[in-house]
């Protein structure tokens, strides 16, 4: 438990993940933070979740816990649904019981990729796989259980720690002569740190509102898209990572070859286009994330691998 800032009480689930680590750091100055990783509380255990919320008596509950193994989800649908669809509702209901606001995180994979312009929050959803379907169900569960909630849809999230595309590309660049990367899936690579910083920025504003954090969030309640500016393919992202890596002198890789999704078999279908329009978060909440290339440069400067 850390204590500082305005005196708010923050309970974070999923503190061990790539977003959770950044959130714990970002919200630490705001007040007392109870950051729970899976080893502390399994969000699939409803009784444990409710007990954690009642014990913390938070003003805000943040849920960064998620089942994110997109391919594994196809054969592990029950566990994926428990974590992504059921647990968010349990967390939101427990938060509502103690009068706390909820901040939840979802995904661009709630869309099917048929569009060719950035998706808005009002666009129809149509997930292609178990992961996206369970995340969409989690959004609905939060909205049904909480009168003061924010759900941020993120996309192509990475961090300078944990297992993610950035760190995988940096590792493989040192191990292989050539990388083969899908070029027909387009999104907006988003560093977890700016997402966490934007979340903390908004919660700081909420804490100072006349009705407190819960009142402020109640007025903002809904789904918001929050991703980096710009767009690229996985192939374009890989090329940018290798080109901007301060340690590129140690690369063994000399070529990043573009391939189609059909050349990279996977258990789950993925949207070919999942760029999100974050204009609503900017206009309604004042949240804007930097362009994906700027985020990448900053992440690599601190040692992305």
TrEMBL record:
SUPFAM superfamilies: NAD(P)-binding Rossmann-fold domains. Belongs to the dTDP-4-dehydrorhamnose reductase family. Keywords: NADP, Oxidoreductase. One of its GO terms (biological process) is dTDP-rhamnose biosynthetic process. CDD domains: dTDP_HR_like_SDR_e. Catalyzes the reduction of dTDP-6-deoxy-L-lyxo-4-hexulose to yield dTDP-L-rhamnose. It catalyses: dTDP-beta-L-rhamnose + NADP(+) = dTDP-4-dehydro-beta-L-rhamnose + NADPH + H(+). Its EC number is 1.1.1.133. Pathway: Carbohydrate biosynthesis; dTDP-L-rhamnose biosynthesis. Pfam families: RmlD_sub_bind. It comes from uncultured Gemmatimonadaceae bacterium. One of its GO terms (cellular component) is cytosol. One of its GO terms (molecular function) is dTDP-4-dehydrorhamnose reductase activity. This is dTDP-4-dehydrorhamnose reductase. Residues 10-302 form the RmlD-like substrate binding domain.
